[in-house]
Amino acid sequence: MIKKIADRITELREDAGKTQNEIAKLLKTTPQYYSTYERGIRDITTERLIILAEYYNVSMDYITCRTDTKNIKDKLEPEEYELLEEFRSLTREGKARLKER
Q1: Is residue 84 predicted with pLDDT exceeding 70?
Q2: Please, what's the b/e burial string for 46-83 (b: 16 or more CB within 10 A of its CB; e: otherwise)?
Q3: C-alpha dihedral, 6 to 28 to 26 to 55, nearest 10°
Q4: What one-character-per-residue DSSP string does the chain give?
Q5: Rounded to an integer, what is the distance from CA 67 to the centroid of its chain?
Q6: Distant-in-sequence, close-in-space partners of 52: CB < 8 Å, separation ≥ 6
Q7: Residue 2 confidence class, pLDDT cut points 50, 70, 90
Q8: pLDDT band at residue 87, thresholds of 50, 70 and 90?
Q9: Which distant-in-sequence residues (6+ apart) come within 8 Å of 89 by Cβ?
Q10: Cα(5)–Cα(88) distance, rounded to whole angstroms?
Q11: pLDDT of res. 15
């Protein structure tokens, strides 16, 4: 699994045209330490995976190779995505009321 994640974060970085140095700065680590992630030598922390997912605008499932769809938005019709965004903006109580219906 480590190797798959390593390949995925390497692919994302290269597709974004970024260097290991730039991503290391984003993650507040050294380029040498970051390179151990891409080589599959070291596990990357969940906190850092979240930072990368947000930075590259992809899902955690994509980075962890649970799906080949980069973003849930790519799977949904525009109207479905709009409804999802509206649902996410509701309070906990609002979500509960909507689920009851």
Answers
A1: yes
A2: eebbebbbeebebbeebbbeebeebbeeeeeeeeeeee
A3: 60
A4: -HHHHHHHHHHHHHHTT--HHHHHHHTTS-HHHHHHHHTTSSPPPHHHHHHHHHHHT--HHHHTTS-S-S-GGGGS-HHHHHHHHHHHHS-HHHHHHHHH-
A5: 11
A6: 9, 12, 23, 26, 27, 44, 63
A7: low
A8: confident
A9: none
A10: 28
A11: 95
Quickly tell me which residue has 């409804």 as its tokens: 83
Which residue type, as a one-letter code, is found at position 82? E
- CA 49 vs. chain centroid, Å, equals 6
What residue type is 66 in one-letter code?
R
- Summarised one tens digit per residue, pLDDT across range 21-77 is 999 999 999 999 999 999 999 999 999 999 999 999 999 999 999 988 887 666 778
User: pTM surpassing 0.85?
Assistant: no
